Amino acid sequence: MTWSHWQEYALAVEINGMTSTPVIDVERLNVRYGDFHAVQDLSFQVRRGEFYALLGTNGAGKTSTMETLEGHRAPTSGTVRVLGWSPRDRSAVRPKMGIMLQESGFSPDLTVRESIRLIGKLTQRTDRVERVLSIVDLTRKAATRVSRLSGGEKRRLDFATTVYGAPELIFLDEPTTGLDIQSRDALWDAVDKLREDGSTIVLTTHYLEEAQQRADRIGLLHKGAFHQEGTVAELTRALPAVIRFALPPSAPALPLRGRRESEGRFLIETHHLQHDLFTLLRWAQEHAVELRELEAGPTRLDDVFRAIDN
Ligand SMILES: Nc1ncnc2c1ncn2[C@@H]1O[C@H](COP(=O)(O)OP(=O)(O)OP(=O)(O)O)[C@@H](O)[C@H]1O
């Protein structure tokens, strides 16, 4: 082997090593608050470039887990490695990690531009302030004090500081709360671009649709442990697809077994969506019945959540 072949080989090993080393590696994480066991023996990994959603019922332990990954909380026991380091090792991980918390902690007297610069200094990330301002459409507010921003604008500033320097690992905690639809779309477009450039995303949200559309994998927490973990398809596989619609009171009996959800609204659960939908549409045609608010589709994450036994 020539010297240049050796160099190529060494680089390939390094790249393979990088891709196979998880960005987040959690092993038997436990978080206790006094007698209360909030996170119980939780183990999972997030791969480089992955979009991982940590979801769960209220009080399931998402925040406790996220805070541990972000380095804000020490585990009671277990090991947590982020980008190969303990997340408590702030100087090692902070330059490579962007964190969007549920609540921002900006100083009200600073301007938008000053706030971004300050975060840049604190995290030792470098970027162009104008670049991130344009991503969140706050260019015109660069000289405005934080105290004068609306709730949605503060949230966008939060996102701007999170993605400043295009960090390798980005934590998004309920990122779209309080955002209008245009701002939400802009945020997800920016996340898509970051992913194209190789960033790893960890999301937690109660907007299940957002996770369903984007997450490569989902960790579904319930009472401090994983109820399920996998792709959306894996999580929804066991549950039937659903057809929902509303009927006028005069409609004849349904051709399929359905469930009344509320007055005039019905739900049919099926493992043969195409076949049963066809039967229903043919019946509606034959009886001149209008199926109002008709929805048919694969199982939604909402249904997976509803199926969790409390
Ligand atoms: N500082 C604390 N002291 C005592 N108990 C706590 C503390 N923080 C959280 N808990 C409890 O630990 C459990 C998990 O809380 P956590 O905030 O991690 O859940 P979560 O999944 O983020 O919930 P939610 O969706 O409701 O925000 C809850 O029952 C909560 O009451």
TrEMBL record:
It comes from the Bacteria. Residues 24-248 form the ABC transporter domain. It is found in: Cell membrane. GO terms for biological process: response to antibiotic. The keyword Plastid does not apply. SUPFAM superfamilies: P-loop containing nucleoside triphosphate hydrolases. It is a peripheral membrane protein. Keywords: Antibiotic resistance, ATP-binding, Nucleotide-binding, Transport. One of its GO terms (molecular function) is ATP hydrolysis activity. Pfam families: ABC_tran. The keyword Transport applies. GO terms for cellular component: plasma membrane. This is ABC-2 type transport system ATP-binding protein. It comes from Amycolatopsis cihanbeyliensis. The lineage of its organism: Bacteria, Bacillati, Actinomycetota, Actinomycetes, Pseudonocardiales.
